[in-house]
User: Fold these one by one.
Assistant:
Number 1:
Amino acid sequence: MSKKSKKDLDTFTCKRCGTCCSGAGFVHIHKDECISIAKYLATPLEEFFDKYTVADAVDGERFLIDGPGEDKPCIFLTRDADGLSGCRIQAAKPRQCQGFPFKWRRPNFEKWCKGMAE
Ligand code: SF4
Ligand code: SF4
């Protein structure tokens, strides 16, 4: 199986493996995004903060929490019966998520992102 080059993202198609939404790491969400996502979920903002986020002890910036599971999935990661992953807040997902893998990448992402396999 050949691999796409790290620079060859113009033909990239997400294979919905969910790996980028799992494991170590954080999804940083800014205040405007919290408001948008809470509205999308029809959830009061304070309830959204309590149920889905944790605040940084130093500056109060917020991060999405992990859902249950040893692979530390994002709280909003869904898995279909066919094994494909999805995002419960796809239409309102954070900018950090929108930017992967085009604007930023974790090291060696081409080794685990199935969209990078031909
Ligand atoms: S790791 Fe790659 S293929 Fe898998 S869900 Fe994320 S972007 Fe899509
Ligand atoms: S918000 Fe959606 S796209 Fe972002 S990490 Fe969570 S499940 Fe993935």
Number 2:
Amino acid sequence: MSVAAENPGTENPAQPIDFHSGFYGLDQEYSGWVDDVRGRIPPGLTGTFFRNGPGTMEMGGRRYGHWFDGPGMISAVTFTGGRAHFKNRYIRTTKYVEEKKSNKILFRGFGTHLDGGFRGNFLRPLSNPANTSINWHGDKLCAFYEASQPYLLDPATLETRGVEFYDGALNTMKNMSAHGKINYRTGHHINFGVNVAGLGITGLKFGLDLYDIDPQGRVASTSRIPLKSFPFVHDFGVTENYAVFLLSSITMGVTGPILGTAAISDVTEYRMNKPVTGIIVDLRDMKVVRTFELPPALIVHFGNSYEQGDEIVTDFIRSTDPGNFAAIKDVFTLERMLGAPLCRYRINVKTGEITHEEYFHAPPGEFPSWDMQKTCYPSRYTYYVAPVDNGTPYFYNSVVKLDAETGDFKVGDYGQHRYTSEALFVPRDGAKSEDDGYLLSFVYDATSHRTEIVILDALEPETEIAAVKLSHHVPFGFHGHFTDRVFI
Ligand SMILES: [Fe+2]
């Protein structure tokens, strides 16, 4: 049976391109050692690589309306003693449990509209698929979604323990984003959420809520920044003392989704004449210290951010090509992934002066990562994935290592018909330089419909050190997290 026939809800009826099968679902949950390895797993590579992403894009033969709507499935690869243990498990969210039980899509989503029009969708809440990111902080393994509350998981078994409300700091109407940043020097996890803040005379009011979670995993302080409209803010930058928000040139209607006459993706538009709104918050008192405008752009993911004197240095992927927005809206029929250049902005907190440079000479890409231990502090290297020309369709088929000091870059090509999402840097035991380590990523091989966990040498990313060859595929995911803790 073809992979398309196994996944009737996810077929692209037009002309499927090989990477499209990387979105097909994985129903089975595995747990066990994987001894089918190409190369040799470094004996010193010790810890657990968690990754989150939608486990399936269909339920009961019907496809979810957007990549963001599939139920979250965690994969965990534990490295110890030169071996690798793999397990995957769906998060038992309310959405997953109820939809699986009835074998039917029951919840609305970012791009998923239920049958029945207004009557079928009016005031129906959005689902929480918990499918976007995962982190281990404060002795808690939490899976996050863009606009809801995290789910708490058992790190050894991946069993779902329940919703994490952080002792009441969150509630069912108060969200936390998927892009919290952990400052490993202080142990604090800084996160945010976009929420409805009330009803004013001109309509709904919105708030950007900031959370400071202490090393014990408790919300130590919060603050709310009032907003005039619902923003598109998926990620942010965090330095030792500041948080940087850049609200993209995106408008998101709320009336249609609330009334149930439209899905959010239907009323989300890129506005090429809408400036980016910048907001800087001082984390010491959680107050806004500066707002500013930047030229219109789509900004989804940030790289690292840090302070140099009075300046905040913040890296992010900045797109001005509407094609990137179109790609986000519908990956199932996507013919070619574009990517955008990494850029570095310097914002003087005292004077407001802003300078920037864009690394146009390097391949455009997405999903930036860096040595996470350096989050909030100066770092030299950024790693991101990119679609490069290797003779096969343009999806993320390589990882780019960019040296911000010299502007030099290197490309690690995963090979023809082999595609990935995010690549995470893990320092080598006894590392001698910032880039002395490994790049870990899930690589989907469209020719075999199987996935490998590939370990590249971060010093020379064109060099593969090892690949853990799974007997099955893992659907494309979003974000991962590495901890040196061994959880099996
Ligand atoms: Fe993201």
